[in-house]
Specification:
extended; 8 helices; 194 residues
Amino acid sequence: MTEKVGVKGDSGKRRWRFFPWVELGEVADVLDKGATRYAPDNWKSVADAEGRYFDAAMRHLLDGYASGEYIDDPAKGGDGKSHLAHAICCLLFLMWFGNKNGKRSPFATPAEEAAEETDVPGISFDDFEELRREIEGMSAEQLSNAKRTMERPRTLVHYHGTQMNQAQRAVAASIIAEKLRNTNEEEVHERFDI
């Protein structure tokens, strides 16, 4: 007699069993300690939360854990919990803010912000991604010519037939600077008079 084998349609679904539950419990302890010390979900309303929790995560990782200190030392104002558990909490907070804010990093470069705030119809952030791809494929000579064009501050610059404004030129300058790895972005902006 053949034993019947059941079917379960769970392909592609989350497999929660792989989580390190003891360590996640340590993260929960840090969250509980914070809720008791401040208030439940207080972290959601901290001023400049994303910047401050990024800094806190880096302090726990670099100043604490990477410096040889596993526990947030109570003698130094810590709570006796793992630096890594604290960093994970901070990273979870950043992930929550990112999801809330449409997956936008608060650390977007000024060039990305300028591209998003463009006021000339026809040039979108996607256009700049296309420009980035085009620049990546340029020869040194083509790149040099593009750089010279951007360096003419009073010259009208067009991309795909649409005039670029100052913010858009800043994006283009940033893209070129990224390609010219030995050129500092600030130097490019100064040269472009933007």
